Amino acid sequence: MDKSKFKTLLTEKTNAINEMLEHFLPEEKGMQVTVIEAMNYSVRVGGKRLRPMFMQETFTMCGGTEAEMGLLEPFMAALEMIHTYSLVHDDLPAMDNDTLRRGNPTTWYKYGETAGILAGDGLLNYAFETAAKALGNISAMSDLAPEKKAELFERATKALTILGRKAGIFGMVGGQVADLEAEGKGDAVSEEMLLFIHENKTAALIQAAMTIGAVLAGADASEIDKLEKCAYNIGIAFQIQDDILDVIGDTAELGKTVGSDEENDKQTYVRLKGLETAKRDVAALSAEAIQILDSFEKEHEFLSELVNQLIDRRK
Known about the structure:
73% helix, 2 strands
């Protein structure tokens, strides 16, 4: 795909997701208004919206239709809320103690530490309340035959299970715990542990995005398995590229200080395998991910280019 065309499409799709998210954010009123304001601020502060984008593109590639967007959009919004809550908690003094994110004050720094904790809690819980709206949307589809409704309910139930597992102790939360326990241990962290951290902390929500998109579109088990592997590759390659950029990246281009991994005695893929091997592994993982996408018959040019841009990024 032409880079100019891709950039235009990416902007259009990001703007559409931002507009969609606004419809799902809670109204800022009531005695709990402060935490709601903090939640909404956290979502609105920006982001690439990659996870809902991956979900939407996979849904379309697997045969999902415009008429079924009422099934998809609550899950897109829910996944972005979960991703946002994880960033809100990452920024807390007890974790990374960051005061800026994307050039704006972090949630805890703007609203206070307690509000930051509760805003993250609120987003996580509201995410599942939002995803559950898909069930109500199915009930409201009066023109559907009972057997079709039952099929859509089954898809939504399976998607909810994936969302909970990939966000929780067997996914992102589990990866975060392992990452914290590995801090400052340098070479004592094994390759097995490092890949566990990358798979769960980084790849799990990408796996959630792509497998939920496939499930909601009615993909079969073999297609879902292929996409889980594809998303694993994307997540691992993304994290390895992050490690590479910490070594060779430019501070001004990245918008953050390079060399922090070495300074903090953090085990990384580059430290473990060497820079050239890390680069080759990123190329191999991304090539296999694209090969998996190419096994699907429906159009996926934008999705493939999104993977390439994500992994080949310089920032």
